[in-house]
Amino acid sequence: MYDEITSVTNYPEFGQTSQIQQFLRLAQRGTEEKEREGALVSLRRGLQRPETQQTFIRLEGSIRTLVGLLTSNQALLQLEAARCLHELSHSEQSAVVEACLPATSYLLTYLSGHSSDFIELCLYTLGNLIVESEAVRRQLLPQGIVPALAACIQSPHLTVLEALGYALSQLLQAKEAPEKIIPSVLGSTLPQHMLQLLQPGPKLNLGVAVEFAWCLHYIICSQVNNALLITQGALSTLGLLLLDLAGAVQRTEDAGLELLACPVLRCLSNLLTEAAAEAVGGQLQLRDERVVAALFILLQFLLQKQPSLLPEGLWLLNNLTANSPSFCTSLLSLDLIEPLLHLLSVSNVVSVLVLTVLCNVAEKGPAYCQRLWPGPLLSSLLDTLAFSDTEVVGQSLELLQLLFLYQPGAAQAFLQQSGLQALQRHEEVAQLQDRVHALQQTALHG
């Protein structure tokens, strides 16, 4: 009976084969449903071990028996059989994953079922199988996985939506996705529904939003048709979500907001590089000052919670300020130059991005350079020129060139503050020293 069934994990390895066969026989032909269900529960626990998984798939008829139970008309047996397949789907061994191929069409069919728990389980199992095996993906595409997922996204159950986001994200990361998968996804209703699920408001769910923000990120990175996403309102939706995130990090200490911030920042950064973004006034949709203020709130949040994500926010700031005087004006009018300079000490990568943003501001001309110089920027540049990282030093020099060009007296003020001595501490002293002298001459006689 059920209480007497012992898990396969309690048996030594030499006994596993016969024990698995016993569980399969009981699950298939047991006299009571509780006994059959108990056999599958024990089998599932055993399948959590890689060696048991290998033994299981080598047994003739094991997968066929499991699929038979999955397609039975008894809900509890179906559920336990699906859980066994789920354990197999976690395997990193391609042989184990591909042994599950006979079950994929049934898992796909059950996505249109009525049990939200069962649909959720099928989605996570499919997601696991998708990520591990190209053979699984090749089988699922003609079987209609994209339309099946598009139907699931209208589910009212948050657990189903989160599982759907997981499965879809695994599909979108496949190496063949740009050619064989993403065009089908873009041609479905999935993108519009994803954007709806990312709309800020009381119905926004963090877990669901994180999954679909990553889905959107993978689609955008493929560059298959970002213009379509922009016309569907991706920029405005993500911009509003950025503002909402900034408000949320000020209101709550709840962990996990950085998990959503990362894909949102990446999506916005990449979309802003698209020509279509300019064509629809993408930057204007982001409402200048509010976006800059929100971005700095998030930068401070990430500095405390997840400093490794700071480059994501700074890359967005770089793309916002690169071709937009209005965003540069916002940076100055909100007195955000000094907080930006405080980030120079975080890492070399962060320093380069901070200096790049400052170059974007300085490139806009004399009026902008006048607001930048000297202030705290002079002492900060003296520090960055002493860095051992050549990229940081090089970007510092780019900024100096712009300041010397547009701001009278900047070169002399810089040299008076021992700027040249800072340069002399760098291993490429001759090259850098010549360049500073050239910049000084440009400023004095140009």
Give a verbal description of the structure.
The protein has 446 residues and is mostly helical. 74% of the residues lie in helices and 0% in strands. The chain starts with 15 loop residues before the first helix and ends with a helix. Keywords: Membrane, Transmembrane. This is Transmembrane and coiled-coil domain-containing protein 6 isoform X6. It comes from Balaenoptera musculus.
Give a concise summary:
Helix content is 74%, strand content 0%.
How many helices in DSSP terms?
A: 31
The total strand number stands at 0
Portion in helices: over 70%
Poorly predicted sequence stretches spanning 5 or more consecutive residues? 1-6, 11-15, 426-430
For the termini, the CA-CA separation is: 94 Å
Judging from the principal axes of the Cα atoms, what is the shape? elongated
> C-alpha Rg, in Å?
29 Å
Q: What summary fits the major beta sheet?
A: none
Average pLDDT over all residues: 87
* Structural class by SSE content: mainly alpha
- Strand fraction: under 5%
